[in-house]
Amino acid sequence: MRSTLPLILTFVVGLFMVGEFFIPHWRYHMWTQVFLEWGFILAAAAYVLGLVNLVQVNLPKVLNKEQDWPYKLIMLAAIATMMIPGFIGGETRLQDGQMYKWLFDFVFVPLDATMFALLAFYIASAAFRAFRARNLEATVLLAAAILVMLARVPIGENLPVIGTKLVQFMNWIMDVPNTAARRAIFIGSALGAVATGLRIILGIERSHLGTDG
Predict the structure, then answer these.
(1) What is the rounded end-to-end Cα distance, in angstroms, of the chain?
(2) According to the model, what pLDDT value does residue 211 have?
(3) What's the predicted TM-score (pTM) here?
């Protein structure tokens, strides 16, 4: 029963929510909005459950000084540092002068920007390995990347004779081949999401229950 009841609930709720796209009645949409609000509540509860699980997993490792325990200690301290001012500030925590707002603007945002700045080096390393002209496809990718990067900087725009044409060709690359490839990826992702949703609704995919059987 513990495995059957979740499957039944998943099937009923999933089928009910899919019907929103095919049943235009206003009362039906009203009930789907109620279900969505309950979904937001469950998502908030999942965040709390994830926080409890995070503390339960990492706190014993810090107390026992297991491998990488200083990093786990810093993580737990950071969680407490952000949570306590957030609870104390209440609804005014995002206003100027509040400790939570100060921590977010002057600690979290700079750390986030630093992390993304460091990712630039990894992207450059990956691009160097990917853009080697080993075959025709890699050569086309390399040529397109060079043209786009050159047209994006002022030195490319100000090149005599070909500067304007280079920018126009770059815009064509971004608007036509790039957009076509992105749409193909989005369509493939959407089909994968639909397939996964159907597998979950029909009970074929049961990994969310902790078992694949």
Answers:
(1) 15
(2) 57
(3) 0.60
